[in-house]
């Protein structure tokens, strides 16, 4: 493929963006870029330094000392490195989510990571998912998808996932956390979550994984002319 194709997938927390984007990228032989993992790495660094994530000045002051790396292992999966250390597993800890949600709202943090994301899209055909990919990071992407599902269905899926991991949480707590995250993501000052005007809406509330993946692949192939 001579021309790089950029696929931007945005949507609320728990909509299945990462799982679907990763699988679709493998099917299309594209590079998958999980931008949420990049912000989680910043959140991980803030937590390790005992910085209050709500202290914007302290978070911004810590950025120059951070070396954020993104590599792809033999397993084909994206690995995140923090100052040379693989933190791929650590950034998935539940407590990191709160840190990532807070620090990702700061314009300085988003600006710090913007070029890294755009460089990957210049060098590879990518499927990149996040909250502002189609609106801010890759506004000229050939394909834009807004992937969503009802808060109740996202909470149900999350509950099942946690049960399978052996770390169950009450449905009501999960739903409350998702609703809070939705409000924060859509009301933050820097790059709030919203559907780009030229994005295709894909609601997976009534779809299983296979149906969702096929719907996503169909949109990508039609929009990119594959």
Automatic annotation (TrEMBL):
Its main location: cytoplasm. Pfam families: Cytidylate_kin. The keyword Iron-sulfur does not apply. Keywords: ATP-binding, Cytoplasm, Kinase, Nucleotide-binding, Transferase. Residues 7-221 form the Cytidylate kinase domain. ATP binds at residues 11-19. It comes from Oscillibacter valericigenes. PANTHER family: CYTIDYLATE KINASE, CYTIDYLATE KINASE/PANTOATE-BETA-ALANINE LIGASE. It is found in: Cytoplasm. GO terms for molecular function: kinase activity. This is Cytidylate kinase. The lineage of its organism: Bacteria, Bacillati, Bacillota, Clostridia, Eubacteriales. It is an enzyme of class 2 (transferase).
